[in-house]
């Protein structure tokens, strides 16, 4: 193998640049030429491909977003479109591809591998909703951004004795809500994986109030219901000043945390090793603090699981 | 004068604690006893008053919110209620009061002064919408919080070539939007003080696109229209991926910036001096980088003005 | 078991408060009374002990340092002094003790356990130099503080084409240097566990320069040599503008990261469970992303090991 | 005037990029061509000059350091060297120059102006030691970096009941020490402009201790004496655990604060206006919250003054 390429696809996440840097440097360390494909699979199909040098990835490890930019290309499920991508790779003499992204990106990587082109997936998404890895690149930065927001909101909640509903990202996965809620000291955490009735939530708020708690923070994943809707339901039933904050897109940005840069460096480097070892069609991940890899085809059909121990702990500590 | 008191009222803002600390330390420096009134005018009326020592304000200069907590008491416009407050002050032997807050708080301070009790107002609000001062305590921290959010959103905007609408606080005053938009490098800034048509905004977006700009950030003060509504209008008329982020309550919190701690220290200390000089009914402020004071009665009837030079500059730099 | 206590000892680390909070809340969840011992073993011997309630640990999860304060008491190796501590515990009816700290603190906990009093150790130190756990509470925050400093220094290094030596904490353990150096994109990382000659360092700097690198960052653990000394040696032998920055005590402070709050919550809660299960003399830790426990007596005699895979990765990515 | 140029010189400071951006955009707004000169006067003499477009200054407003890089060229006092610079400017058809930097940079700008080439100085230095302006670009960011460090150190100081000496930048000017000390709540602030005896410092520490203060923070400007030396003197004479932290180069870096971006934008834009008005040989600044300009020749011969009111306030609040 002489030439490999790397692209980022789907929603961007902090640490993608650190992963790109690792792919490029690890590749050059092994005397490979490394190409960057811009705008994800969209750029692949359109031949938006450039050679990357050591200098191309200088001073990017600390930057949010992705220097390769990202895009979604739903049409890439179409075998005709996949073949166009393949042609571009062949045209540039590229023999292996690292795809950094989430579930949708993995499907593209799997399709290309099935067409005989070795791809390795690197889990880059803030949602931590990829199977085969305990943590995805960007998740740690996202929860740090969320707890920073919770800390700020706590200032004003405690100054005014208010109940705050904070809506965080997570359509299908509650990891951001669960981790940031626990680390942020939230009284109630609502995640898609575990339904809670509004009665339960109100019971807890009332118990807290009886114990002298004057302010309260509720973290809700967007997949459960909108923060605005939850706040409305609460206002109808409890005697408290309820406010809502929807954190939104700030969760995707920012300079990556040390943990994300570290994880991205390890995973990006391992992806290159897999290509060198002739192992296409794999997705790298971290499991039990060890870098591992699984077949992408398995990963994309497995649901993500939340850690029930953490759910239990969150409840015990928020009495 | 032997005993003075301090309270915070209305929406909390970062730096209120630094102002409280300054009042207490400056008071004690001049051999006064200083009392803290909790929960604003609500606590005043209910006699929620405690003596503060040097140690009471130790290690608070860097904390957001207000250790005295805050509240709104609309009933304080009622002279009967004002008299109840007055009685509490007399009961504790307090001879002067520092009121830290916004416009509504100043009205309370003015009412008490009119009843013969000397009050001094200190401008504490993130909105920068108080007359008689070029900057209010909390404004600098708020705009730093906003530009941090803009920087994060820019990561994802530039990775995806998106147009972002960022809604910031400011019902009647555009200062947060204007300053943070200029400092955040926003392409378009919408403030209540200057109406712009949707056509104008779209023209600018299109011109930017023609010049090769692939992403764009629009900062809108909540007083102009909601970010969601603006995004909807834009989506109908331009060919771009438009997203919206409502920053909300994080703008009120956080550790105060150096500038806010500094300003709060100067204003809090000056408020005590005014009481000692027998000058009740004044509001302190900073004008032309000098600590000044005006009659509260004037301040509460003057509209806040935005700096037209800054509006012009923002336009020239966002070409 | 009805009453337990908790103390923090040795150098403070961010997340200790989150661990204290977890001990208190988990204890109360299981209907225990929980006591706080102030100033570590010093306070234990002197009976500086107070009951903690849910409210005692409210709004502390995000605070650096330790609300129980810390101290060193070298005399605690003396059995007479240990017995004084024991008497205080008995006097208050306390039946189990959670000790949060580093190696020295563990020795105290082990001594008390050997005297028949069940103690559980929780690893709280920024140095990540405790055996039996892959991560200690405070380490993640410390490396985030270091990479924030590296990012700032990179600004000025790249603006002036300078070589920067950054000295970080770590007398015997290179983990802070290794992780922050890798995550900070340092060109050279010097750790006590692996000696490198000055010739090697200079070779690498020269190779980088030939490849067009105009600035360079060297992270050195204080246990290798002082940053000032290293900079002097470099200045004598290379033609570059070499500057040095000793990060010092800022590495110990700051609001704990999400990961540290999370780890502290899990470890603190597990420590209480161990006491309830009648398992004194254990130290909790995280190994392979699972909460584990070992005999303290083993832990204090085992050297900490650095991950050689990470050393290799750091070298490959810093070509 | 058709073509102007901009350079940064001397020590870099956060906000220089915002100033460069303002010069470029304001210039293009007025239909000028704007050139960037790399590596300060060194690059000027060597013809390291490139045309800048709107896109050249996109996404830089939030970045520390300077994209034009900086350098010192002591030889620029030599008229022969100045003429070489002049030739390069003429060769590119450049008719006016904006010089962003400190005192030394202003001398270069003044020399060129005296040779008939119109230059305008923009004060860019963290030290706030330029005459003719109350604030320099970078000062606000630097003091925010310092108070963030003080906040971190306070965590550990209060956990261990320690006295901390924090050395900050400022050889001849005490502004960083004074502002950050006041905003950081330091008990003692030592600046070059006002000598204090070690006896005084010790008196204050002892008085604080008697009042129950268990930890203490002393901020010392490097121009007074080194933090290490001060700590040694204190250790000899007081019974306290004294530690020292030298903040060093982190003070120069980091993303500029809102205030610095704002000031840089205003000053950079005004500098272009002055060139357009045919007013070379001026230095812009902010005085009494108004953008002003003075003759560079005056500025470089005037000493910087510290605000005595602030010194007094710092003393009164640190009782």
TrEMBL record, chains A, B, C, D:
ATP binds at residues 11, 72-73, 102-105. ADP binds at residues 21-25, 154, 185-187, 211, 213-215. Gene3D superfamilies: 3.40.50.450, Phosphofructokinase domain. GO terms for biological process: canonical glycolysis; fructose 1,6-bisphosphate metabolic process; fructose 6-phosphate metabolic process. It catalyses: beta-D-fructose 6-phosphate + ATP = beta-D-fructose 1,6-bisphosphate + ADP + H(+). Its cofactor is Mg(2+). It comes from the Bacteria. InterPro entries: ATP_PFK, ATP_PFK_prok-type, PFKA_ATP_prok, Phosphofructokinase_CS, Phosphofructokinase_dom, PKF_sf. One of its GO terms (molecular function) is monosaccharide binding. Pfam families: PFK. Its EC number is 2.7.1.11. PANTHER family: ATP-DEPENDENT 6-PHOSPHOFRUCTOKINASE, PHOSPHOFRUCTOKINASE. Belongs to the phosphofructokinase type A (PFKA) family. ATP-dependent PFK group I subfamily. Prokaryotic clade 'B1' sub-subfamily. This is ATP-dependent 6-phosphofructokinase. It comes from Caldibacillus thermoamylovorans. The gene is pfkA.
């Amino acid at each position: 193998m002489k030439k490999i390429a790397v692209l980022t696809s789907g929603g961007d996440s902090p640490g993608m640049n650190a992963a790109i840097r690792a792919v490029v440097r690890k590749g050059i360390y092994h005397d490979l030429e490394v190409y960057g494909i811009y705008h994800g699979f969209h750029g692949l199909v359109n031949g938006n491909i450039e050679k990357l040098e050591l200098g191309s990835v200088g001073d990017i490890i600390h930057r949010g977003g992705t220097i390769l930019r990202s895009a979604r290309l739903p049409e890439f499920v179409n075998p005709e479109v996949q073949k166009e991508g393949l042609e571009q790779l062949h045209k540039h003499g590229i023999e292996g591809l690292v795809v950094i992204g989430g579930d949708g990106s993995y499907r593209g990587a799997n399709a290309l591998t099935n067409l005989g082109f070795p791809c390795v997936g690197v889990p880059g998404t803030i949602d931590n909703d990829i199977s085969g890895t305990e943590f995805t690149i960007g998740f740690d930065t996202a929860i740090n951004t969320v707890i920073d927001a919770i800390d700020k909101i706590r200032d004003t909640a405690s100054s005014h004795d208010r109940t705050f509903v904070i809506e965080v990202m997570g359509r299908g996965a509650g990891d951001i809500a669960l981790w940031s809620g626990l680390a942020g000291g939230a009284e109630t955490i609502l995640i898609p994986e575990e339904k809670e009735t509004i009665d339960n939530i109100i019971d807890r708020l009332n118990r807290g109030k009886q114990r002298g708690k004057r302010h309260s923070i509720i973290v809700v994943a967007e997949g459960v219901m909108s923060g605005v809707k939850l706040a409305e339901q609460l206002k109808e039933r409890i005697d408290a000043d309820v406010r809502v904050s929807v954190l939104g897109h700030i969760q995707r940005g920012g300079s990556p945390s040390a943990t994300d840069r570290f994880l991205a460096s390890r995973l990006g480097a391992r992806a290159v090793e897999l290509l060198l070892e002739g192992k296409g069609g794999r997705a790298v991940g971290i499991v039990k603090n060890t870098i591992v890899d699984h077949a992408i085809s398995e990963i994309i059909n497995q649901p993500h699981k939340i850690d029930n121990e953490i759910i239990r702990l969150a409840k015990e500590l928020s009495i």
